[in-house]
Every structure is written in structure tokens, then in C-alpha cells.
Design goal:
The protein is an alpha/beta fold. It has a domain at about 5-260: Amidase signature (AS) domain (Amidase signature (AS) enzymes). It has helices at about 10-15, 25-40, 50-65, 105-115, 155-165, 180-185, 220-230, 250-260, 280-295, 310-325, 345-360, 360-375, 380-405, 425-430, 435-440, 470-485, and strands spanning about 45, 75-80, 120-125, 170-175, 190-195, 215-220, 265-270, 300-305, 405-410, 445-455, 455-465. It has an eleven-stranded mixed beta sheet with strand order 1-3-2-4-6-5-10-11-9-7-8, with helices on both faces. Helix 2 (about 25-40) runs antiparallel to helix 3 (about 50-65) and helix 7 (about 220-230) runs antiparallel to helix 8. It is globular. The structure holds glutamine. Glutamine binds next to loops.
């Protein structure tokens, strides 16, 4: 049978369809792999063994009956613990939600179940998706399969690490400022942020609602596109969901991989992103990626996006501001933790004690930052200014996309860093998303594809496309992937 945990999702789907292997065997092989390595990787907060085997059996039975099944039926997937899963613990990496079992599935979780995907469990993350390393998870960090002394990125480090460690062929992440792409980059995997509104936020525990975007993590561009196609599309339960057909991301990826031809494709190099910012080894690997795309026929055009340098400060006003209202619902009354409810205290005291005990330091920092930025005397100076900057960044993208088809940059300024090296200065942690945040503020899709190593650690190549042109980033991403040697982490 070979080791099914090394297969891509596309290959697994084909082998399942050909009945060479059963969904139960595939699920069991991944559960065994989790049992063997997750003590060291800690990608999972919860492994749903029974649920996974039950779902796998249902797919096998459907196959025997001759039901028509999708290309990922029977393929396992890991889900970031920020998506609600009916009856399965969901914590968002926070103590305040410990023990909470949601009464419903997120839209994309039910879409995956309908497509026959087998959910293995819930993955670790920075608390409420705030962070770039999983060091802010209330349940301890995830370890990078490339080097267990280093961070796997964040906030979706668990999802990326589960895929890199062959615990799951596919995973779901969410990207508010880079939390799919940055973990993808530092674990040598593929991470895609779809167009904002292209994937439903219904059932996603909200951090910053105007930025949050769920998307796929995988080991290949094709696999990411296959999962993207399952989870994307209009959802009437999400008022910001786009009522338009999903671009043909799977077809575009296959076209890019099989022809490898990028004749006529214009790549925009963002002037403001070159030079300072990225480590020399990251810049070198990125340049090799650009050279590979040029060999495939792409043309490089330098473009200017003068407001990108204000993206990081604008994000750190907008995201914390939105989080203050989204996190107000965690009050000890509705969900999870309740502290001090001994009959002697007022409701306000119980709420305050619950929030004091339930939220970690980074979440508290964001709530304080956001409350300040929204306060009546400062609203115009901070939040209002940041929204204006957001408009200017969107205009930079619009102008750039009049000249080029996609924008490219390194995904992150640096490779995976050692634990503890950036927690003492929040700004150092925030810098991890220097190159990813502009796409969130604008709303367009962006993907990170591995492009070689620096100091023996993976580097990510980011491809940003116009809104609703998600297919374009898959085409260029697949072409890049086919031109570069694959990255394989050292054995665990
Ligand atoms: N690292 C960024 C932050 O801390 C982005 C997080 C995300 O995309 N969820 O806010």
C-alpha cells in the first residue's frame, strides 16, 4: 500500500476512487502518524479519533453503494481550532473557551463533511489567532517539524505543522494578517488566503471581521486548490460572502503545473518591499524564485506601492479595534470559563475575573490597544486614520494591477525563529507579517509557495492577485512549484 501519509491529497483521492485503499485505512494511517509524532510536534489540541473513523466508514460505504463522490472524498483534513465543529471541543487556543463544544458546524466544516473529507481533529494556534509563532496559545506552542527548537509560524502554526509533519495531507487555516501564509512559509508548505468574502466566515470565531479569511494549507499547490474549491463559494449566512461563482482554481493550478508556461504573465516586484526588510538568505531564495518564473516566460515589472510601508501600523489599529468588540462576548456568561461565581460577587466582578483569568497577555494587549484607538478622543487620530491608509493601500493595489497580473514578494522577512526570541518585544513579532498584511487590508487573494532554503530552513514565495482572481495565483504558484525542487523536512 505504501505509506499513505506521504501521498498528496490529489493522489490519495485517486487511490481511494480506484479502491486501492479504503478511507478507514487512510484515516487510521494518519491517526497512527499523529500518535507517533504529535507528542513532539504538538500540532493538535484535540484528535477526534472516533469522529474521523466514523466519517471514513461512511465514505467507504457510500463508495460501495456507488454514490457519486468528489475528488477529496475520504481524504483527511486537520482544522484550525478557531472553526466551530459540532460537539467537538473548540477553544481558539484560549483558556476562556476550554471545554466548550459548539452546537453547530462552521459552513466550511459542513462543506468539507459533505465532500467526504475526514476531519482528524483541531489544530493549535495563537490565542484568538493573535500571533505569529503559536507561542501565544494557552495550551503551549507547536514545534516546527524542520527544527523542533523553532516556531512553526502563527497563528495557524498547528495546521501548517500537521501538514509538514505528514500528520494530515490538508488543513484549514484562517488569515487575518498572514496566519495561513506565514506558517506555510516557515514550514515549507503551501498556504493560500482566498479573496476576502470568497470563503465563509460563518462559524469562524471572529478576530477582526473585516480581515478574517479562511483558506487551505497543503503540501502542494494542486492540493490547496482542491481544498479551496470545496470550501469556497457564496454563503447566505455570512453577510460579507461574495455572491459570485468561485474562480476555477483547480483548473488554473493544473494548467500552471502541466504547461509551466507563463508567457505574457507580468510579475510586479514591489519596489518598497525590496532592499531592507528581508534577511539576505530569504531575499536570495526569493530572487531564485523570480528567476525560475522568468525562465517560464514571465516578465518582471517593478511597481511602486508607496503606502505599503504603512500597512503594518494600520493593521495594528484596525485589527485590535475590531477584536475589542468581537471579544466582548467572552464574558463568563455565554461560553466556557466562569470565575468567581460564588454568590458573593456582582455580575461585573464575575465578568472581570473571568476575562482576567481567561485571556492571555497578547489578547489583553490587543483589547487595550483597540479600546484606546476607538476611544472618543482618539478615534479620528488612530482608527479613522488607519481606515484612510487602508483605502490608500487598496488604491496602490488597483494601480499596480493596471500594470501587472500578480505582485510577488517573499512571504516573510525571516525564516522560522527560535522559541522565545521575539516574545519580549511585541513589535518584533508583528514584523513577521510585514509582507502579508497588505493583501488583507485590500482583500485580494495571496498564496505562499515554498521556494528553497535559507540556513537549512524553508523560505516562502508570495504571489498576490486582484480580488476574485484567485485562479491567477494558483496558476503562477503551480508553475513555480513545478520549476523548483520539492522541499522535504528531516525525518522526525
Ligand atoms: N500575526 C498577525 C497578528 O498577530 C496575523 C494573525 C492572523 O492572521 N490571524 O495579528
Amino acid at each position: 500500500m505504501g505509506d499513505v501519509t506521504r501521498s498528496t491529497a490529489a493522489e490519495l483521492g485517486r487511490r481511494l476512487a480506484a479502491k486501492e485503499v479504503s478511507a478507514v485505512e487512510v484515516a487510521q494511517a494518519h491517526l497512527d502518524r499523529i500518535a507517533a509524532v504529535d507528542e513532539r510536534v504538538h500540532a493538535f489540541l484535540h484528535v477526534d479519533t472516533d469522529g474521523a473513523l466514523r466519517a471514513a466508514r461512511a465514505v467507504d460505504e457510500a463508495r460501495v453503494r456507488g454514490d457519486e463522490l468528489g475528488p477529496l472524498a475520504g481524504v483527511p483534513v486537520a482544522v484550525k481550532d478557531v472553526m466551530t465543529t459540532r460537539g467537538v471541543p473548540t477553544t481558539a487556543g484560549s483558556k476562556i473557551l476550554e471545554g466548550w463544544r459548539p452546537p453547530y458546524d462552521a459552513t466550511l466544516v459542513s462543506r468539507m463533511r459533505d465532500a467526504g473529507l475526514v476531519i482528524l481533529g483541531k489544530t493549535n494556534m495563537d490565542e484568538f489567532a493573535m500571533g505569529s509563532s503559536t507561542e501565544y496559545s494557552a495550551y503551549g506552542p507547536t514545534f516546527n517539524p524542520w527544527d523542533l527548537a523553532r516556531i512553526p509560524g502563527g497563528s495557524g502554526g498547528g495546521s501548517a505543522a500537521s501538514v509538514a509533519a505528514y500528520e494530515a495531507p490538508l488543513a484549514i487555516g484562517t488569515d487575518t494578517g498572514g496566519s495561513i501564509r506565514q506558517p506555510g512559509a516557515v514550514t515549507g508548505t503551501v498556504g493560500a488566503k482566498p479573496t476576502y468574502g470568497g470563503t465563509s466566515r460563518y462559524g469562524l470565531i471572529a478576530f477582526s471581521s473585516s480581515l478574517d479569511t479562511p483558506g487551505p494549507c497543503a503540501r502542494t499547490v494542486e492540493d490547496a486548490a482542491l481544498l479551496h474549491a470545496v470550501i469556497a463559494g457564496h454563503d447566505p449566512r455570512d453577510s460579507t460572502s461574495i455572491p459570485a461563482p468561485v474562480p476555477d482554481v483547480v483548473g488554473a493550478g493544473r494548467h500552471g503545473a502541466t504547461t509551466g508556461d507563463l508567457t505574457g504573465v507580468k510579475l510586479g516586484l514591489v519596489r518598497e518591499f525590496s532592499g531592507e526588510g528581508a534577511e539576505p538568505g530569504v531575499s536570495a531564495a526569493f530572487r531564485e524564485g523570480v528567476d525560475a518564473l522568468v525562465k517560464l516566460g514571465a516578465e518582471v515589472v517593478e511597481v511602486s506601492c508607496p503606502h505599503f510601508e504603512y500597512a503594518l501600523p494600520a493593521y495594528y489599529l484596525i485589527a485590535p479595534s475590531e477584536c475589542t468588540s468581537n471579544l466582548a462576548r467572552f464574558d463568563g456568561v455565554r461560553y466556557g470559563l466562569r470565575v468567581g461565581d460564588d454568590g458573593s460577587k456582582s455580575l461585573e466582578e464575575v465578568m472581570s475575573l473571568t476575562r482576567e483569568a481567561g485571556f492571555g497577555p497578547e489578547v489583553k494587549r490587543r483589547i487595550i490597544l483597540g479600546t484606546y484607538a476607538l476611544s472618543s478622543g482618539y478615534y479620528d487620530a488612530y482608527y479613522g486614520q488607519a481606515q484612510k491608509v487602508r483605502t490608500l493601500i487598496s488604491r496602490d493595489f488597483a494601480t499596480a494591477f493596471e500594470q501587472v497580473d500578480v505582485l510577488v514578494s517573499p512571504t516573510t522577512p525571516f525564516v522560522a525563529f527560535p522559541f522565545g526570541s521575539r516574545t519580549s518585544d511585541p513589535y518584533q513579532m508583528y514584523l513577521a507579517d510585514l509582507f502579508t498584511i497588505p493583501s488583507n487590508l485590500y482583500g485580494g487573494p495571496a498564496i505562499s509557495v515554498p521556494c528553497g532554503l535559507s540556513e537549512g530552513l524553508p523560505v516562502g514565495f508570495q504571489i498576490m492577485a486582484p480580488t476574485m482572481a484567485d485562479d491567477r495565483m494558483y496558476r503562477v504558484g503551480a508553475a513555480l512549484e513545478s520549476a523548483l525542487p520539492p522541499l522535504t523536512p528531516p525525518p522526525l
